[in-house]
Structures are given as structure tokens and as C-alpha cells.
# Entry
Amino acid sequence: MRPAGPLGICALMFSRVKLGHGVGLRTRHYGQFLSEQPGVEWVEAISENFMGQGGRPLRVLEKVRRDRPVVLHGVGLGIGSVAPFDQAYLREWKELVERVQPALVSDHLCWGRARGRYAHDLLPLPFTEEALGHVVERVKRVQDHLGRQLLLENVSSYLVYPQSTMTEWEFLSRIAERADCGILLDLNNIYVRRAKSRVRRRGVSETACRWSASASTTSPVTSIAATS
# Structure
């Protein structure tokens, strides 16, 4: 851990952790993990499924943690939201992290909270300088709260923002560099985004062809934008 910066936020030098091959912990696995020693090197647990509660789920997670490394992966932080952080959420999350001592802690590079409501979805961000600075500041606050580093996962997306001024990989890499956080690279999400991007480009091209064939006097840019 580096000394605190001018904002009182500690800077953390990210270090890679080699875990091998793991699986996601699901309720249908509980009995097996309690009675056996499954042949996996590490386990990923969804943070929200174990926050603020005890009982069997937490007992299973603690048993798993005694036997192998655990990675806590969240879905509800909303690091890109403009709404203030849910303080109860942060408190319960930190309690879980301190109790489990996971090998890694991660969440998604997305937003999902606005005006007191939670969308229960991983909504993509525009790739702009403003959004980048906003996310970096919030990542630093979260890492300072947890006392450890956070990994951000790229999300799948079915839309793009015309306001974006950079590529997704530039946006993500610059956040990691400036916030000193890690990247959880989801290859399937990259494939989904690329596949949807091809569909959007094909739709735009088809619209342009229809516009050209119709010999319309409407601006082609306006026509394409309105259709897409």
C-alpha cells in the first residue's frame, strides 16, 4: 500500500494472483461442498448472496474458504452510477470481505442506480472523459473503504452511446491505470458486444442503402440516426 494521496485516499499497487481453475458457487453445490472435497482450485461467490446474513449460505462459504481460495464477485455496486453509494451496502460488503478474506474482490464496470431506484441490471457507460473521471474517483473511494483493491469486469452491451470518445478497451485500461485497480476480463462479454456491434452496423448499412435507393431529399445522416 502506498502513502495516502492529497485526497486522503490510499493508493494500492495491484498485484496479480494466480488461482488456477475455479467454479461459481451455487446453491445446488452446497451439499457437495459440505460433505466432499470437489476437485476445484478456487470458488467464485456472488457477494450479495452472502451479505448481511448468516445461516447455511454463510456456513457453506466459510467451509469452502477453509479449504480453498474464494473470490467475491459483486453485481450491485453500480460503480458508474451518479447516485451516492448505498452506505448499508458498503458496510455489509466490507464485513463480508473481512470475514471471508477473499483472494480477489470484483464487480462490474456499469451503472444501475438512479433517483433512489435500482435497475437490477448491468447498464453500460458512455466512454467519455467525464465518465472516466467519475468512475476513477468512485473506485478510489471503494478501495479506500475496503482497504484492498477492486477488479472491474467489462459488461456485455446491446447499445452504444454516440457521446463516446474512446474505445471500450481504452476506457477500461485508463480506469485501471488511474485508479490502480484490476481488470476482470470477460471474454464472452467481449464477444457479445462485438456481435451486437456487427448487427448494429449491418442495420445502419441497410438503412443507408434504402435511403439511397429511395432518392429521398432527407439528409442521409439524419435518416440513418432516426432509424437506428
In short: The two ends are 47 Å apart (CA to CA).
